[in-house]
Amino acid sequence: DTGVSQDPRHKITKRGQNVTFRCDPISEHNRLYWYRQTLGQGPEFLTYFQNEAQLEKSRLLSDRFSAERPKGSFSTLEIQRTEQGDSAMYLCASSLVLAGSYNEQFFGPGTRLTVL
Amino acid sequence: AQKVTQAQTEISVVEKEDVTLDCVYETRDTTYYLFWYKQPPSGELVFLIRRNSFDEQNEISGRYSWNFQKSTSSFNFTITASQVVDSAVYFCALRPNFGNEKLTFGTGTRLTIIP
Known about the structure:
- The structure holds two protein chains of two kinds.
- Chain A has strands spanning 5-7, 10-13, 19-24, 31-37, 44-50, 53-57, 65-68, 75-79, 88-95, 106-107, 111-115.
- By secondary structure, chain A is mainly beta.
- In chain A, strand 5 (44-50) and strand 6 form a beta hairpin.
- The N and C termini of chain A lie far apart (34 Å).
- Chain B has no helices and twelve strands.
- In chain B, a hairpin with a 6-residue loop joins strand 5 and strand 6 (46-52).
């Protein structure tokens, strides 16, 4: 199966620790999105990449958050000095953006973060 | 700014009943897409349907049907003859046709089908 994969699926950490999540998009997809879903809410956009360039960041993405996509393939999302409010499901999606055509976003299974 | 409102937080119906999930949206874009996703307890988002703002023709697919009304900015979703496996959280979402194409989701409706 060559869908979007995310690692780890679950992460439990203590407040103040740093965590890093990885997303592997569908091969050759040039666009990659990160969303965050807190309990009882819908997913909210965090940031997206076009190849290796990070083109937009939501105001939800505080200075403690950093995302990279160094070679335009996989992406990492790091949270420094985690807080209990960071507890959420972090979803990754990818798409192949071609001019003039509809571009479907495919979601990964998510990484569920619990900050104690 | 884009906004999606799902006023129904939770709905419970007895198996085999029909149920309609409401969705109202706001956007300044002239062209856009609307979606319904299903999120079962396992957590993954399952794509159900996509609608282009150009296409107001309503559709039926098996037990699912959708009612898109641009005049009222609504995109409602109906399940007929509900089944226990339909129990999940359902999200309505909106995204522009161009640019960043980021999805804006509603807060979801938790649907419980009672056997």
